[in-house]
Amino acid sequence: MKTYKGRYTVKNPKKYCGDASDVIYRSGWERSVMLWCDRNDQIVEWSSEEIVIPYRYDLDKSVRRYFVDFYIKYKNGKTLLVEVKPNKQTKPPEGKRRTKKYLNEAATYVMNQNKWESAKMFAEKKGWEFTIWTEVELKKMGILPKGHKKPLKKMPPYRKPKKKS
């Protein structure tokens, strides 16, 4: 899966909580959420990866830092911490349990579960809500562009046929 990274230019810096000159997206979906937050008149504050939550990683018992994708505060006072992830990554991995791919996906799944549990507790203590937005929610909310489909698989580079000498 090809990922898109880049710098987002905040259109309404007064709404952004944090350094509005240094906003980075790590996927096209995150960029779409940034545009939505920036343009949505129901949102009074938002930020990306400005809130850091410590969590314990179950596999090695280390304490790590989780940078939550989004903080969003609405006019009605509701405040969300939002993680943007493909739906597939919110479920336990499938496949043969002895493969390297399966073991990597399983470790990532455990890490995500540890992060999300800590984020949920952090949010509840503040009277906020923690939620995960997958492509399913993003489409329902109208955040993803019309006609948006699954991310395209990375194509091999195009090579012109060699000229015969």
Helices and strands in order:
Blueprint: E1 6-8, E2 23-25, H1 28-39, E3 43-48, E4 52-57, E5 62-67, E6 70-74, E7 79-84, H2 100-126, E8 129-133, H3 135-140
Parallel strand pairs: 7-8
Antiparallel strand pairs: 1-2, 3-6, 4-5, 6-7
Radius of gyration: 19 Å
Helical content, roughly? 25-40%
CATH topology: Trna Endonuclease, Chain: A, domain 1
Total of helices = 3
Strand content: 15-25%
Terminal Cα span: 38 Å
CATH architecture: 3-Layer(aba) Sandwich
Give the CA-based shape: globular
> How confident is the prediction overall: mean pLDDT?
89
Low-confidence stretches: none
Number of strands: 8
SS-based structural class? Answer: alpha+beta
Number of separate structural domains: 1
Oligomer: single chain
Would you list the SSEs in sequence order as H and E? EEHEEEEEHEH
Biggest sheet record: 4 strands, mixed
Q: Strands across the major sheet, in which order?
A: 3-6-7-8
Structure description:
- The protein has 165 residues and is of the alpha+beta class.
- The chain has one domain: Trna Endonuclease, Chain: A, domain 1 (3-Layer(aba) Sandwich), CATH 3.40.1350.
- The chain has three helices and eight strands.
- It has a four-stranded mixed beta sheet with strand order 3-6-7-8.
Task: Give a short synopsis of this structure.
With 165 residues, the chain is of the alpha+beta class. It has helices spanning 28-39, 100-126, 135-140, and strands at residues 6-8, 23-25, 43-48, 52-57, 62-67, 70-74, 79-84, 129-133.
Key structural traits:
four-stranded mixed sheet, globular, alpha+beta, 27% helix, two-stranded antiparallel ribbon, 165 residues, Trna Endonuclease, Chain: A, domain 1, 3 helices
